[in-house]
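Field reference: "sequence" (input) and "structure" (output). Example, oligopeptide transporter-related:
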Amino acid sequence: MVSVTAIVYVQSNVSWAIGLGIPAFLMLLSCVMFFVGTNIYVIVKPQGSPLSSVLHVLVAATKKRGLKLPENSAVSLFSYIPAKSINTKLPRTEQFRYLDKAAIITDEDQINPDGSSTNPSKLCSIQQVEEQQTYAVFQALQMDRHLGSGSFEVPAATYVIFTMIALSIWIPLYDRIIVPSLRRLTGKEGGISMLQRMGIGMILAILCTLVSGLVEGNRRHIALTRPTIGITSKGGSVSSMSGLWLVPQLALAGLSEGFNYIAQIEFYYKQFPENMRSIAGSSFFAGLALSSYVSGFLITLVHRITSGSKTGDWLDDDLNKGKLDCFYYVIAGLGILNLGYFLLCAKWYRYKNGADHSTAEMATKHIV
C-alpha cells in the first residue's frame, strides 16, 4: 500500500529521483535481512526429482499400451509406497485409465525384497500413477481526481489501492465471520470447497470487467457531451466524472483475487503430491506470468485489428477517442468461456483424500 500511495505521490509531486531511490533502499534493506536470516533457515536435502516419477509412468504406460486392465484393478495393480515417503497414499481414480497400465504386473516385471520395482520405467505403482494426474490507471488520468472541492489531486496510480483495501478487509471478514457461518451450514471445514471459491472468484472477475465497461462508457460519454475540467499530457480531455466511480470495479478485482488466488494457492499446495509442493507453489506464479504474456498479446491484437477500422483504435492513448469499454466486454466474454471450461474440469476432478470433504460435482452445483 505504501508503494501506491506515499511513493507514487513522491514520484508525481516531489521528485522521480527520490521516488525511485526510496524503493531501491527498501529493496537493499530486504536483501540484507534475507541474508542475515539464512543461518536459521532449515534446508531439506533433495531426494531425487518428482518429475522422474512422471516420466517413469509415461514410459511404462506406453510400453504396456497393448495390455488390458484387470477387472479388479484395486487389488491386481502394483501398489507400493516407500517406507520413508512423505506423500499421502492416494486411492485409485477412473481418470487417465491409460496410465493405470503402468501398474500392471507382468511376468517380466521384477520386484525388490522391499516391495519396490527393480525397473521403474517398466513397472510403476498405482501411487505414482495417481500423482501425475492496467487500464484503470488510464481511466483515472481522464477523470476528476480531486477530493471534494480542495486542490489536492489523487495520483492516478494510487487508485489501485482500493483493490488492496478490498482484499485486506475481505480476508479477515471471510475467515472470522463468513467461514464459521458456512461451516455450520455445509459441515465443511472451509465452509465451501476450493473449487467453489475459484469459481466465485472467476464470476467476480467477469462482473469486474462488466462494471469497468459500464463505467468507462459513461466516463467517455460525459467527456464528450459535457464541459471538461482539463487536458492530459497526451492531449485528452479530462472528464468531470469523479474518479471514485472506479472504486466498484477495483473492489471487485480485490474480491476476485481474495477468492480465486488464495483458493488456487491452497489447491496447488494440498492437491499436489507432498514431494512436489515446490512445483505446486511455482505453478500459481507461472500461471500469472503466462497470463501477462497472453494479456500483452491480446492488447497488441486488438490494437492491430481496430486501428484500421472505421471506429478507430479501441485502445487509443486518448480514451475519449477509443472504445475501452468494448475491450472490457471482450475480456468479459473470454472470462465467461474460461468459467465454462473451469466448470467442466471441476465436475471431472476428484479431490485427494482428506483435502476437502466435498466432491467436485458439489463445487459446480454451488457455483452455478
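The radius of gyration is 27 Å.
DSSP finds twelve helices and no strands in the chain.
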